[in-house]
# Entry
Amino acid sequence: MTLFAPNTVSDRYTKKKSRLPESYVSFIEASDGWEGDLGDYYGYVVIWDKAKIQEYWDSYEMVKYLPDYWFPFGSNGGGDMLCFNLKTKGDASFLIPFIPMCEQDAMEHCVSFELIATEIAQRSNADEAAKAEGDMG
# Structure
């Protein structure tokens, strides 16, 4: 007997996709995740691939601690998860501690996910250029 449907890996993403910021949807559809240091302002950022969203929602039992309008999509590589507040209809990202996990501790991380995506693209382009330069030398 199966306790869950076989194609539930990215259920949370699929169910919430229409309510997610377009900047995030475009990014995750193109890259399906990312990890790296974005410097002093944004810090270390881990953006989970679509499959990890449901996996972490379940394994951290987020349904017990966060209202459904919070959408976790990554972490800072440490003790905080990155989330969107779907009630606000914006694309600001927030940090919420994994322990104790409660929305009262949510702090704005970035006013717009688009800024994070742009920073990632710039760093990725710079890394590719440096690699190409190194390959020529």
Remarks:
- The beta strands are 34-37, 44-47, 70-75, 80-85, 93-97, 107-110.
- The chain has one domain: 11-131.
- The radius of gyration is 16 Å.
